[in-house]
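Re: beginner question about structure tokens

> Can someone show what the tokenized structure looks like for a real chain? I only ever see the sequence side.

Sure, here's an example I had lying around. Input first:
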Amino acid sequence: MLTDFFYHLRAHKLPVSVQEYLTLLDVLRSNVMEPTLDDFYHLARMTLVKDETLFDRYDLAFASFYRQVEAAFPADKEIPLDWLIKQFQKHLSPEDKAAIEKHGWDKLMELFKERLEEQKERHAGGNKWIGTGGSSAFGHGGYHPEGIRMGGPSAGNRTAVKVWEKREFRDYDDQQELGTRNFKMALRRLRHFAREGAELELDLDHTILSTAKNAGFLDLQMVPERHNTVKVLMLLDVGGSMDDHIARVEELFSAARSEFQHLEVYYFHNCPYESLWQNNRRRYSERVDTFDILRKYNDDWRLIIVGDATMSPYEILQPGGSVEYNNKETGAAWLQRLLDNWPKSVWLNPEPEGYWQYRQSIAIIKNIVHDRMYGVTVGGLERAMQYLSK
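And the corresponding structure tokens:
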């Protein structure tokens, strides 16, 4: 969030330097101030703004940023940190878990606002209030089939419909060699060769013919190198449940990088929305508007989306349903735009096909992509490439 604050000030034409930003971080780590909004306002202004003539501009920028942050949290309430410190975990039997009620999206958001307004103290091991280790829909460290995780790591259930934390992901490695040979062979079905560019390759047949016609004097004939001209746009799901498939996706990514000369790669999390990114280390600061991508690549490109399609159905069908932030339009709407822009498109799913029938979100995505979902296997890749090459 502080990084966003730094770039927000720069966007308002405030000459904030990286060194000043690092100084602010050092001061915050030293706990010289109370964690209140007023104290942070004065500390940030003292650290980042050296010219008093810019104080009014800073005030406007700070107020604008605060309104953005405020809008992301319902009911104008702060959650005390000690509410989210896990001390123990309640044991639930399979029968207990099955008996826990799913609230649905609208009721869940309504209940969250009510808890923020009503809760006055820390709770743990319960089934109602914001806390830890229990069966409440709000907090972390326990179990709920459809809740909001906040303030701590996942307990491994992967059932949260919202995650209130900043998560960092790692780029996929495109240099993997072990196990990629079969993938390369499958990807080679998507080929369209042409000779373009400078004449760098010896044309042996024409050299022999020309030399013979030239009374035996060597007459070298050159041709441009032969390249695969197919253009591929690849969107990769990263983080969350995709952590189970890192090795296989990296093998696929490495094979694609070696086979396609024209390859552009963007990342998304769970479902594509209004922005994508190309570097996970800078995914908060260097996002690319999806509309810009739609305009940049014409319909000559083939679209390959790689993801396990395993998520809450709300992330696909509900505005604001993204697990990480409040998206204005549904994931289904953005996915449909991608498919309309690139008719030659497929979805590659690394999740074993035997599990697909048990995932509601996979059924929804598969319906949106008109059953053009294929497994990340040699057979699945061959069928996908065969479709894209038509």
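Each token stands for a local structural state, so reading them left to right follows the chain. The chain has four domains: 2-72, 81-164, 181-188+229-388, 193-227.
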